[in-house]
Amino acid sequence: MEGSRDSGDIPPYKDLGVPKASDRVPKIYPEGVRFSKRWVFFKTAWVGIILIILASIVFIFAATLTPEYYWAPVTHWSDSWTIKPAQEWYHSWTVNDPKNHVLEINVSVSGGNNDLRIYIDTPKGRVDYGKLTSPIHLKLNLTKYGTGKYTIHYDNSFSLITSKVVSVVETMYVFKEDTSDKDALYFVAIFLILVPGVILIGAGARKVATLVVDDDVIEAKLVASGKLELKVNNYKLDERIDHAVKFRAGKNESRVVEIKPVRTGWNNVGWMFSVDDQEVGRLP
């Protein structure tokens, strides 16, 4: 036979998901005492925030800039000579990295009809431009023909009587992208605006503890070298403390407040706040 069960203390299923107040474990303070901490941005930190916003604007503007593309000369060769009838001259280049490279050939011819046959032997075969008349301007895309030896032939073999005076300038160009304006703005945004902004925020953001003892309000702010700056009822103490202090506060100055340094890490110093010998909080 089953025994009877008392269901008076068993909650309905609707209450199962509702947390009870007793489930929370509150911080127990002495009567009339409250302790809290918050981050506070002072003027220096706000300047840092403004700098970071400015850096973001400059960074976005730099990202919208279009790079400038241009052909930059890499190397060149030039010479002048006389090509006799039924002869030819040549000049060779060895190209190891033809990507985005162009060979430009400018030729001036005098004699006869001021003409000359030009052809180029490339790693992928011959490119014959035929008989050309001065002034001659040619461009060869080296990317198309690849790595290897390029020989430019200046051919006067079709002339049986007339010599030709030839002046040649051969220039190799590479296609480049100019991002100097963009890079300069990135440098300004990061190193001259963003980094100082972060430093200023680090210098101007401080953790502030507020200790309320009855009607007295004590604010403690961490400053340089781990020292503490105190303000009692909005009256700022002139001296920054780096040692333990005790003073009376509260109604009729009946409570004893103690603030003393404690080690919080290998080389870090924090501060412990006690009221009537009971710890109520720490900073940071």
TrEMBL record:
This is Uncharacterized protein. It comes from the Archaea. Keywords: Membrane, Transmembrane, Transmembrane helix. The chain crosses the membrane at residues 44-65, 184-203.
